[in-house]
Amino acid sequence: MRHLLSTRSLSRDEAIALLDIAEDMAAVQHREVKKLPTLRGKTVVNLFFEDSTRTRISFEAAAKRLSADVINFSAKGSSVSKGESLKDTAQTLQAMGADGVVIRHPASGAPYTLATSGWIDAGVVNAGDGTHEHPTQALLDAFTMRSRLHGAASRGKGLDGVRVVIVGDILHSRVARSNVWLLSTLGAEVTLVAPPTLVPVDMAGWPASVAFDLDEALATKPDVVMMLRIQAERMHGSFFPNSREYARTWGLDDARFSQLPTTTMVMHPGPMNRGLEISALAADSAQSTVREQVANGVSVRMAALYLLLSGERGELR
């Protein structure tokens, strides 16, 4: 694997292989010494142009557990705040000998530009670009679903027939986009639920159905309900009347949660707005996978870095 930029370009076999490697990486987390020598001598740069807690720390932990050297770069306080371009930043990293670059950027397509421009030889991982994609989040979500559904017998399996309902701000969510493509590739049936104003105008080709009534979607007893954060920082208009109205109509409150089968997984990529898109009861229940998703993120990102930075590099992905 040369780069990891999108889930849309991953084949089923590639996605399952990555999840299987993540299973091996998860086993390392239970050892007394949680490190492998695999990437010793490699340098991974976390190049974050947007604020992040979970993703940046997760990638840092993943790289260090593979024995790589890690450089954390934040746009705030760097030359970027003085007007330095992405090209100049990339060439600086090239001069420093970066082997892998994990990039989060507010502009959709920035990771692809970095990977294909020739500015840098490093493998590139997309850690979220604008409202485009966030592939490792989708991979850790799929890993979490697979682990809960199949347990120790997960290896080699997809998510065939699993019914997933994704609820919330689809319009601005790169997590939703990556999940739609990946989950569909793995055989899941995806339904998107949102206010009409928070659904992309052009969804031609998306392998998912769209609904606007959350109660009707939950009445089908889905295997997974994934709640998304309202991304107020990306909104420049009124997409719904107010927070109370949104929570009443599209939030997973106590009443809706109590009607779900006890086998239904409740997921959230974080950070959560408790009381808005999800209630505390749902978020803290035994059905919630929120903490598992964070823990699994390290294993999945270890797998991604392993594939990018060890052995031969294949064609662009």
TrEMBL record:
Q: Which GO terms describe its biological process?
A: 'de novo' pyrimidine nucleobase biosynthetic process; 'de novo' UMP biosynthetic process; amino acid metabolic process
| A Pfam family that the UniProt record links to this protein | OTCace
**Alphabetical list of Gene3D superfamilies matching this protein:** Aspartate/ornithine carbamoyltransferase (3.40.50.1370)
| Annotated GO CC locations | cytosol
Q: Give the EC number(s) listed in the UniProt record.
A: 2.1.3.2
Stretches assigned to coiled coil: none
Q: Which domain of life is it from?
A: Bacteria
Q: How does it assemble?
A: Heterododecamer (2C3:3R2) of six catalytic PyrB chains organized as two trimers (C3), and six regulatory PyrI chains organized as three dimers (R2).
Family statement? Belongs to the aspartate/ornithine carbamoyltransferase superfamily. ATCase family.
Protein task: Catalyzes the condensation of carbamoyl phosphate and aspartate to form carbamoyl aspartate and inorganic phosphate, the committed step in the de novo pyrimidine nucleotide biosynthesis pathway.
Q: What is this protein called?
A: Aspartate carbamoyltransferase
Organism, scientific name: Agromyces aureus
